[in-house]
Each structure stands twice: as structure tokens, then as C-alpha cells.
Design a protein that fits this description.
The protein contains 14 helices and nine strands. The protein is α/β, with parallel strands linked by helices.
Length: about 425
């Protein structure tokens, strides 16, 4: 039997492990300008230093992490109120958008600028931690897009976001109900949903014999020595270690059990010995160019790879596997209005513009990342050219939010264990 066929620890989709450690979150430490060091040895080497604090304050601290079983309603302070209703859009404005470049179609920026007679500037970021640092240093962004839901808590105590006035956001009526009123921001007081994605296995059908759907457990597919040098994992410490966890049968993606993290690391070290696996940050480009043939990937990265294929290579060359029952890693990115922006009305209108059906189709055609709109069924994604029929498996269904496995924010000691596992693995990449 494959190592990944029998769950060893479930904890429920998106539920923090009972072993989760207490303390400040890693991103809170980053916000204070502190550094986080990770040990070079296995994760279990760090557990002794974390246990004493856990006994004292673990339960109280874990309750601070938003999750499906712990929905969070963020307060609206008297010193940080939503803008009034019925205001006119700012004139002669330059709307400053802060977003990963691969998550926005430049055509959308141009269309908004023409529709609202303004200019639109784009500043990009590569990682969530880099975005958090920039948001603390620069206060003139009007819109931020593409932040994962599990970093929202790091933006709230310093009041970096402006509460939303939903009267400017009528298109929210067409959003999947669970993301219009999400657990990480009950009533959507500060955020709107932007993209949704799953994390599975992408592969080049024209280069690889067989496919994950034909195996007993699709998560095993990368562990093939025949494709040494052509296998990749995501260059992200959470996502990479998650692959090792699921391969060993663990479905708690927020575990703080050092033994489970060590097992996951050893599974990935085995992958490295078999395939010379490498951590890939340019997934879509590498898949399209054939630099990788089997790749841990987000659904949007697999879909975007089709747009980059060389001329003459059909869309069918790229495949994407995710468990058909939806029990796999799923996530969402959000949009928000930073408090220091100078154009809050246009910022609201921009978020609403992104939730328009036509705008979403244009966006997805370029980015590959699906938007959680009721109207955007998988059939319509194919019909309007936002997704090829051969990649219908990259479409996200609302039910995935019920069954999917979610990465939540980790408290600092737990995060240190994950980083330790990642640093151990990097020696083999």
C-alpha cells in the first residue's frame, strides 16, 4: 500500500492540531522587526524549547487563530470607520494597486482606468511576508490583492486596512456564500474574495507515461526515478512540507507534531534521492518550457502554463490532478483597501470591478486563477475561453471549501518547527 493511502492524523479540514504551540505569530514578529531563526537539524530537535510555554498559555493563544471552527469577526473602531455612502469617485486620481504581477491581467487595469477616467499604477510583491513589510512601510496603496487569507490577522492590530462600505460593492451578491461571509473575516468587514485555488500535481502529458488518475494515490506520482531531473515541488516552505505530510497520510496541514514533520521531511528527502527534485518558483514558465515534467502546483499555475506553451504545443500537453473528492489543499486570496490610500472610493469601485463577470473572465484567461463567482461554473470557464476543456480539473467548486484542507496561520513555535523542516530539506535540493 502506498504511504499516502491511509490517514494517520486528520484533525478535520483546516482545524489546528491539538499540538499547536502558543505565542506570537511569525508574521507578528516580522512586523516588530525581529528575526526568526530555524534550527538546522530535524524539527524534533526544537520541541523541548517550545513545550513549557505551551502548557501555560496554549489554549488561549490557539483561540486567536481564525479557522473554520473559530470564525473571526474583526471590530470596527471609532478611529477607523468605513467611508460614507454615496461619495463620488475621486477625480484626476492615480489608483495604486499592490498585487503579485501574475495575479492580475494588465488589460483589467487598463479597462478600469478607461471606465473611471483615472490612472492605475501597479506595484508587485513576490511573497506574503514581503507584502506585509511593504504595507507597514508605505501607506499610499489604494488596493491590495493576492494576500492569502491566513495573513489577515497580521494586518488587523495595527489597523492597516480600512473597513469596507458594501454599498459600493454590489457584485458581492454574486460571490460564493462561504467566501462572501468567510471564517477569517465574518461579514466581510475588511476583505473581498479575489481568487481560489487548489494545490495538486501538474504534469506534461506529452513527456510522462501514465498519469496520477491511474494510480492508487495521485500524491505518489512525483516519486518516480524515471523522471529524475524533471520533478519539482513548490518553493514555499508551507506548501512543500504539506506535500510530504499528505504523502505520509497526514491531513492536518497545521500540525505542530515534530514527529509528523520529521516523517514528511524524510519523505521529501526520499523524493530528492529518487528524482533530484528541485524547488520551483516559476512553475507556469517551467511547465510550459518543459524544464519540469511533474510538478507540485496550484491549479492556477497549471492553467497559466497553457498560455505559455510554445507555438504548436497543444493545451492538452498540460495535465492537472487534484483529488476528485475535493479532499486536498485549497486556499483563497483576498482583496482589501489599505487605510492610507488616497482614493478610497475608487478603491472600492476597483474591487467591485474585479467581481464583474466579464472582468473575471478576462482576468482568468491571463492569470489562470479562478475567481469564486456563482456565475463562473466550470462549463462557462471553458465556453468563454478562460480554461481549456483538458484542464477542467483545475476548476474549483464551492464544495471544495467544505471538504478541502486549509493552511491556517501558525504560531511562532509551530512555525519554527516548519521552518526547521524546510531548512533540513533544502540541503537535499
Amino acid at each position: 500500500m502506498s504511504p499516502g493511502t491511509r490517514p494517520r492524523q486528520t484533525g478535520g479540514p483546516g482545524t489546528p492540531s491539538p499540538a499547536a504551540e502558543p505565542g506570537l505569530t511569525r508574521r507578528a514578529l516580522l512586523a516588530r522587526g525581529l528575526s526568526l531563526s530555524a534550527a538546522a537539524g530535524g524539527a524534533s530537535a526544537l520541541i523541548a524549547g517550545c513545550g513549557a510555554t505551551a502548557a501555560a498559555t496554549g489554549l488561549q493563544s490557539r483561540r486567536q487563530i481564525p479557522g473554520p471552527q473559530n470564525p473571526k469577526t474583526w471590530p470596527i473602531k471609532s478611529s477607523n470607520q468605513p467611508i460614507a455612502s454615496g461619495l463620488r469617485a475621486e477625480r484626476n486620481a492615480s489608483v495604486q494597486v499592490f498585487c503579485p504581477a501574475h495575479l492580475i491581467n494588465p488589460q483589467v487595469l487598463g479597462d478600469f482606468a478607461r471606465a473611471f477616467r483615472c490612472q492605475v499604477g501597479l506595484t508587485s510583491f513576490a511573497t506574503a511576508d514581503a507584502a506585509l513589510r511593504m504595507l507597514r512601510q508605505r501607506s499610499d496603496f489604494d488596493v491590495v490583492l493576492g494576500l492569502p487569507a491566513n495573513v489577515l490577522a497580521a494586518l488587523m492590530p495595527p489597523d492597516l486596512l480600512r473597513p469596507l462600505n458594501h454599498s459600493y460593492l454590489p457584485n458581492l451578491a454574486g460571490v460564493w456564500p462561504k467566501l462572501a461571509d468567510p471564517y477569517y473575516d465574518v461579514h466581510g468587514r475588511y476583505t473581498v474574495p479575489y481568487t481560489v485555488y487548489s494545490t495538486g500535481i501538474a504534469w506534461r502529458r506529452d513527456q510522462v507515461s501514465g498519469n496520477p488518475y491511474a494510480t492508487a494515490n495521485g500524491w505518489d506520482f512525483p516519486w518516480q526515478a524515471a523522471y529524475a531531473g524533471r520533478v519539482g515541488i513548490l518553493d514555499d516552505y508551507r506548501e512543500a512540507i504539506v506535500l510530504g505530510l499528505i504523502y505520509t497520510g497526514v491531513t492536518d496541514l497545521n500540525t505542530a507534531d515534530p514527529r509528523l514533520l520529521d516523517d514528511a521531511t524524510r519523505a521529501l528527502e526520499k523524493l530528492a534521492r529518487l528524482t533530484r527534485v528541485r524547488a520551483v518558483s516559476t512553475v507556469s514558465a517551467d511547465l510550459a518550457a518543459g524544464r519540469v515534467w511533474i510538478q507540485q502546483a496550484r491549479s492556477g499555475q497549471a492553467a497559466a502554463a497553457v498560455n505559455r506553451l510554445p507555438r504548436g504545443v497543444p493545451a492538452e500537453a498540460v495535465g492537472y490532478w487534484f483529488p476528485p473528492d475535493g479532499v486536498g489543499p485549497v486556499g483563497s486570496d483576498l482583496g482589501a483597501v489599505p487605510r492610507g490610500g488616497q482614493n478610497p472610493v475608487l478603491a472600492h469601485l476597483f474591487l467591485n470591478f474585479l467581481l464583474n463577470h466579464d472582468t473575471a473572465v478576462i482576468n482568468i484567461r491571463r492569470t489562470g486563477y479562478m475567481q469564486p463567482l456563482n456565475w463562473l461554473t466550470p462549463d462557462r470557464l471553458v465556453r468563454y475561453g478562460a480554461l481549456p476543456q483538458s484542464l477542467i480539473s483545475a476548476a474549483i467548486l464551492p464544495t471544495f471549501l467544505d471538504h478541502g484542507l486549509k493552511e491556517l496561520e501558525l504560531l511562532t513555535p509551530s512555525d519554527t518547527l516548519w521552518l526547521s523542516a524546510w531548512h533540513t530539506l533544502q540541503r537535499h535540493l
